[in-house]
């Protein structure tokens, strides 16, 4: 299942934010969208999710144009993981995850026992089954993020889209969540993730799309995240370094310089 | 590598330094039967609420200014059921079947639908502080009734005019807010427009009160607005029953979808819900319910606000259980209040006064009980 | 920069003006003003009288224009000295029996219990010689009435006389007004007529044995479910003619209208129902066909009467001097065996003497429409 964005123009009624955007994400791929504030990352994935109408070009999933897909149809294909926030009512974690099944339910139905099994399976897959009966509004930010990922998984989508999944998380949780996302993509789901931090791309994503004032560039992480690109995009000086991890694999890091 | 393994290693490394935002494995392992038990428990609660409603319903027949001894009451009912001819006075028959029963039925319906509308709106507007009058149905209906009283129309016409104006008010809110926020289905604009429409109709009500003859029209209008079922007749029942049934059915059918709405517009859409359609359906239904309730019983507040909270405490926020619970609780509650209103003093106490006096402290108590949900 | 300063100053100024305006408006109908300073030196054109609330009021010796602050007093003024009436409180449609002059008088609003519709500027402009304020003066109400009238004086700078509207004080009120307005002869005529008729009725009903007293429900409001209990002054006439008020309910002072339920009416099961004619509760036919009301004794036996109301209410709303006639009407309707009067003649006599109107038989029938048994 390939997500293809073909020569898309994205924006709002009065303002075109991005144009000539083209890329693809395949099953098992993880694409990290990097870019500074306000450059259009949000606009891009809101367009993919159907919250904003495309101004030009097309977006296809498995070859089909998703422009006129119904909301349930879209939801069965694309799982959205927003940034965790506090809803007004104290649902349990399982309740929240079960809502992922809405796309598969009839208009009047509520989840069946089978749906519950799928939801529990998602929690299990992420290793957070112990949260199942807790109140969603009482658990920590990191735990909530995991719950939202579980919910998206419960939609049994072909592709996951995550909006800055690590904001509000501490360092440890950031790493854990990112590695979990990488694992999910290795299990066969296509993943698109936005981030502010180049190191996130280095940690888990082989493919990067860089958006900045000059345009849109997509390619392998090693090629895209260069000192020159970082200077152009973020306006700061960095040095890209290489380290070996405990298993001898190479891991790169982007280090900010003081001058 | 599973997270749990990583966690264990982490814990070994940082056993002394318990970081607050760390994933931790809780001691109690969630039992696989968890959700099943909850369903059973919620089902039980709903069953209890139904029984409670029936008990209060039956008990309401025994209270009233016209004394009806319990044995006689039972005789009347059994005779009616078995088709025997009346062995009791005409007056008793009229009091029971023309006065008390219609009043009890109407109180039940009004309580149930106000609670349901409140529950639905709290979900749609993602705000537990919302009540059914937020879009103007109540003020519109009040205006319609005041107008009808001013022109000395009879009670059935008053009910009808009030109902129509309740709908008109919400229509105004919906259309105007649609004009303002054309593309983004903003609930905020809906709420603000609703406030404006409510204020507008309240001002019109004040205008009517100002011009009304202070010797009889003004007290009548004031009394009607304060809410009461003292003049309910059998002929008033269709206009509350029919819209209520029409309105409550879609509300119950789609109630599971309402859960997702409380997470936000975009999130709900991403889960596969056509938020605009669902919102539209619920607003129409709630408007039908609220308009007919206010048109029949006057402006009764606090029911739509606190009953959903109570329901949430009993069965949780999942609308699958919470909406039926609200309906049952709302009906019982208003029925009890109406029983009070017609018995504790020699004069009829307007319902809105009682619901406020009882509701406000009760609400404070509910807030206190569920404070963990806010913080 | 200067522009912004100006804008801020401007909006501040507007805000202050706005608040001043609101304060002025609110001061309009407020009757909680300090007591007025009466002129202590009595000029030769004024004299001091004591009104029925015990207040000493300085009034002109010659009075040509009078304004009634409440509808209650209008009937009295009209009967006593119609040519001195300066304005009316409210526009009424019942003007058939009033003189042309009075029909065309300006309408200035008044102090109507719950709300004040008085057009203060107009009243001050018209500058009537005195203003009459009339309400029931039980000990509870006296102080408040005095306060209200002092307030009216403060706002209009005209002297205010307080009269008692309790039914039995009617002759006293007439005599006082006669003295004030300089129409003592006429006042005496009306006062003694009232006394005589009231005494006559009183004597006749005194003879009724207790067990023959009739249960009466006074039906006001929407669906006839508001009423006044025994203690309320709106039912002065009912009490006077010894009708038993069934309404065992809380008394609401002022406007009254205590709400009751149909069940209560059933448990009282009155023998007679008086339907208030004020406003337009003319759905008399509706009551006679209503599925619940037709089970009540009064309706079953056809003893439902609409209180006559032209040109002013005979029974109540407003409670005025026509109750002298109203008492005769009600007594003859409730106790025809004990109160033997020729009601039609009494009506004609009253209208002729008090309202200076000669009624035809047709008009009498109209006036008593739905008010008597046929």
Write the layout of secondary structure elements.
The complex is a heterotrimer of chains A (259), B (375) and C (374).
Chain A lengths: L2 E9 L4 E10 L4 E5 L6 H9 L6 E6 L2 E2 L5 H7 E4 L11 H6 L14 H13 L15 H14 L4 E4 L8 H16 L3 E6 L2 H7 L2 E6 L2 E6 H4 L2 H8 L3 E7 L5 E7 L3
Helix pairs in contact in A: 4-5
Chain B lengths: L2 H11 L20 H27 L9 H12 L8 H35 L12 H14 L4 H26 L6 H25 L5 H9 L11 H17 L1 H7 L3 H6 L4 H23 L5 H13 L3 H23 L9 H19 L1 H4 L1
Helix pairs in contact in B: 2-14, 4-9, 4-12, 4-13, 4-14, 5-6, 5-7, 5-8, 5-12, 6-7, 6-12, 9-12, 13-14, 13-15
Chain C lengths: L1 H26 L18 E5 L5 E5 L5 E3 L2 H10 L19 H4 L7 E2 L2 E2 L3 H7 L3 E6 L3 H18 L3 E5 L5 H12 L2 H23 L8 E5 L6 E2 L8 H5 L3 E2 L12 E2 L2 H7 L3 E4 L8 H6 L7 H4 L3 E3 L16 H12 L8 H13 L5 H7 L7
Strand line-up of the largest beta sheet of chain C: 10-8-12-13
N/C terminus separation of chain A: 45 Å
- Give a quick account of the main beta sheet of chain A: strands, pairing sense, barrel closure: 6 strands, mixed
CATH topology of chain A: Rossmann fold
Stretches of chain C where pLDDT is under 50 for at least 5 consecutive residues are 28-42
What is the averaged pLDDT score of chain C? 81
Number of helical segments of chain A? 9
Helical content band of chain C: 40-55%
Count of helical stretches of chain C:
14
Beta content of chain A comes to 25-35%
Task: Describe what is shown at a glance.
The complex is a heterotrimer of chains A (259), B (375) and C (374). Chain B is an all-alpha fold and 375 residues long. Helix content of chain B is 72%, strand content 0%.
Description:
The complex is a heterotrimer of chains A (259), B (375) and C (374). Chain A is α/β, with parallel strands linked by helices and 259 residues long. In chain A, 32% of the residues lie in helices and 28% in strands. Chain A has a single domain (2-256), classed as Rossmann fold (3-Layer(aba) Sandwich), CATH 3.40.50.300. Chain A is built from 9 helices and 12 strands. A 6-stranded mixed β-sheet of chain A has the order 6-7-8-3-9-10, with helices on both faces. Chain A has a 4-stranded antiparallel β-sheet with strand order 2-1-4-5, covered by helices on one side. In chain A, strand 1 (3-11) and strand 2 form a beta hairpin. In chain A, 47% of the residues are buried. The model of chain A has no long low-confidence stretch (mean pLDDT 87). By secondary structure, chain B is mostly helical. Chain B has a domain at 117-370: ABC transporter involved in vitamin B12 uptake, BtuC. Chain B contains 16 helices and no strands. In chain B, helix 4 packs across helix 13 and helix 4 (90-124) runs antiparallel to helix 14 (319-341). The radius of gyration of chain B is 24 Å and the shape is globular. The model of chain B is unreliable at 12-32 (pLDDT under 50). Chain C has helices at residues 2-27, 71-80, 100-103, 120-126, 139-156, 170-181, 184-206, 236-240, 262-268, 284-289, 297-300, 323-334, 343-355, 361-367; strands at residues 46-50, 56-60, 66-68, 111-112, 115-116, 130-135, 160-164, 215-219, 226-227, 244-245, 258-259, 272-275, 304-306. In chain C, the strands form 5 sheets. In chain C, strands 10-8-12-13 form a 4-stranded parallel β-sheet. A 3-stranded parallel β-sheet of chain C has the order 3-6-7, sandwiched between helices. A two-stranded antiparallel ribbon of chain C has the order 1-2. In chain C, helix 6 runs antiparallel to helix 7 (184-206), helix 7 runs parallel beside helix 12 and helix 12 (323-334) runs antiparallel to helix 13. The model of chain C is unreliable at 28-42 (pLDDT under 50). Chains in contact: A-B, B-C. At the A-B interface, helix 2, strand 6, helix 5 and helix 6 of A face helix 1, helix 2, helix 10 and helix 11 of B.
């Amino acid at each position: 299942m390939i997500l293809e964005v073909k020569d898309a123009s994205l924006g709002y009624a009065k303002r075109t934010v991005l144009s000539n955007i083209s890329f693809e994400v395949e099953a098992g791929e993880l694409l990290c969208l990097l870019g500074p504030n306000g450059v259009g990352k949000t606009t891009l994935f809101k367009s993919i999710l159907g919250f904003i109408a495309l101004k030009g070009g097309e977006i296809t999933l498995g070859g089909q144009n998703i422009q006129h897909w119904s909301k349930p149809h879209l939801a069965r294909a694309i799982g959205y993981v927003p940034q965790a926030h506090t809803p007004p009512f104290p649902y349990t974690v399982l309740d929240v995850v079960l809502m992922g099944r809405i796309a598969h339910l009839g208009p009047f139905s509520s989840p069946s026992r089978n749906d519950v099994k799928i939801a529990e399976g998602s929690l299990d897959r992420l290793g957070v089954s112990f949260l199942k009966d807790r109140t969603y509004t009482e658990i920590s930010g990191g735990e909530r993020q995991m719950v939202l990922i579980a919910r998206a998984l419960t939609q049994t989508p072909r592709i996951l889209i995550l909006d800055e999944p690590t904001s509000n998380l501490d360092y440890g949780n950031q790493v854990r969540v990112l590695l979990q996302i990488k694992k999910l993509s290795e299990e066969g789901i296509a993943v698109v993730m936005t981030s502010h931090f180049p190191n996130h791309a280095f940690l888990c994503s082989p493919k990067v799309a860089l958006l900045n004032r000059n345009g849109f560039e997509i390619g392998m992480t090693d090629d895209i995240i260069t000192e020159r690109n970082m200077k152009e995009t973020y306006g700061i000086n960095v040095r890209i370094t290489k380290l070996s991890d405990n298993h001898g694999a190479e891991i790169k890091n982007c280090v900010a310089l003081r001058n | 590598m599973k997270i749990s393994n990583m966690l264990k290693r982490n814990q070994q490394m940082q056993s002394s330094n318990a970081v607050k935002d760390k994933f931790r494995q809780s001691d109690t392992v969630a039992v696989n039967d968890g959700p099943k038990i909850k369903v059973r428990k919620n089902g039980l609660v709903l069953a209890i609420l139904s029984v409670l409603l029936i008990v209060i319903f039956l008990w309401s027949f025994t209270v009233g200014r016209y004394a009806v001894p319990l044995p006689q009451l039972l005789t009347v009912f059994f005779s009616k059921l078995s088709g025997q001819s009346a062995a009791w006075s005409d007056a008793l028959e009229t009091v029971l079947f023309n006065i008390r029963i219609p009043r009890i039925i109407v109180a039940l319906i009004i309580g149930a639908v106000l609670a349901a509308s409140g529950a639905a709106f709290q979900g749609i507007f993602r705000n537990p502080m919302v009540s059914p009058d937020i879009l103007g149905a109540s003020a519109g209906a009040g205006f319609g009734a005041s107008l009808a009283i001013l022109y000395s129309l009879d009670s059935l016409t008053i009910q009808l005019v009030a109902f129509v104006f309740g709908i008109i008010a919400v229509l105004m809110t919906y259309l105007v807010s649609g004009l303002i926020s054309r593309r983004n289905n903003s609930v905020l604009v809906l709420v603000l427009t609703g406030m404006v429409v409510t204020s507008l109709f309240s001002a019109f009500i004040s205008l009517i009160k100002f011009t009304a003859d202070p010797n009889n029209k003004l007290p009548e209008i004031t009394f009607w607005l304060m809410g009461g079922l003292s003049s309910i007749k059998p002929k008033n029942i269709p206009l509350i029953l029919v819209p209520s049934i029409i309105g409550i059915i879609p509300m119950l059918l789609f109630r599971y979808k309402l859960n997702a709405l409380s997470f936000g517009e975009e999130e709900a859409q991403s889960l596969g819900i056509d938020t605009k359609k669902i919102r539209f359906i619920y607003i129409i239904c709630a408007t039908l319910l609220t308009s007919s309730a206010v048109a029949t019983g006057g402006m009764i507040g606090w029911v739509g606000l606190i009953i959903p909270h109570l329901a949430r405490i009993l069965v949780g926020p999942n609308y699958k259980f919470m909406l039926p619970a609200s309906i049952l609780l709302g009906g019982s509650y208003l029925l009890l209040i109406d029983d009070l209103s017609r018995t504790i003093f020699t004069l009829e106490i307007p319902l809105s006064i009682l619901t406020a006096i009882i509701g406000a402290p009760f609400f404070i108590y509910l807030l206190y009980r569920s404070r963990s949900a806010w913080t | 920069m200067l522009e912004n300063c100006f804008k801020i100053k401007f909006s501040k100024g507007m805000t202050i003006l706005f608040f001043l305006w609101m304060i002025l408006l609110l001061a309009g109908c407020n009757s909680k003003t300090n007591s007025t300073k009466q002129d202590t030196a009595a000029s030769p054109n004024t004299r001091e009288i004591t009104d029925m609330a015990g207040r000493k009021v300085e009034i002109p010796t010659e009075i040509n224009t009078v304004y009634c602050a409440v509808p209650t007093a209008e009937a009295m003024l009209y009967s006593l000295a119609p040519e001195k009436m300066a304005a009316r409180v409210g526009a009424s449609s019942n003007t058939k029996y009033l003189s042309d002059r009075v029909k065309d008088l300006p309408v200035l609003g008044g102090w109507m219990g719950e709300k004040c519709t008085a057009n203060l500027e107009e009243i001050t402009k018209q500058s009537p010689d005195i203003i009459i304020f009339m309400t029931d003066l039980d000990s509870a109400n006296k102080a408040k009435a005095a306060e209200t009238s002092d307030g009216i004086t403060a706002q209009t700078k005209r002297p205010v006389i307080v009269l008692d509207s309790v039914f039995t004080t009617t002759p006293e009120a007439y005599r006082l007004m006669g003295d004030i307005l300089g129409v003592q002869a006429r006042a005496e005529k009306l006062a003694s007529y009232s006394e005589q008729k009231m005494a006559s009725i009183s004597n006749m009903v005194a003879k009724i044995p207790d067990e023959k007293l009739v249960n009466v429900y006074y039906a006001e409001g929407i669906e006839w479910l508001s009423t006044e209990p025994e203690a309320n002054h709106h039912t002065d006439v009912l009490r006077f003619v010894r009708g038993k008020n069934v309404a065992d309910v809380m008394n609401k002072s002022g406007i009254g209208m205590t709400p009751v339920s149909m069940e209560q009416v059933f448990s009282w099961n009155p023998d007679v129902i008086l339907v208030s004619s004020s406003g337009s509760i003319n759905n008399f036919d509706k009551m006679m066909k209503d599925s619940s009301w037709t089970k009540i004794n009064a309706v079953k036996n056809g003893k439902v009467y609409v209180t006559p109301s032209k040109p002013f209410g005979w029974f109540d709303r407003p409670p005025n001097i026509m109750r002298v006639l109203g008492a005769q009407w009600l007594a003859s309707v409730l106790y025809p065996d004990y109160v033997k009067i020729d009601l039609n003649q009494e009506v004609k006599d009253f209208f002729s003497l008090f309202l200076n109107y000669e009624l035809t038989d047709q008009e009498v029938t109209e006036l008593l429409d739905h008010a008597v048994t046929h």
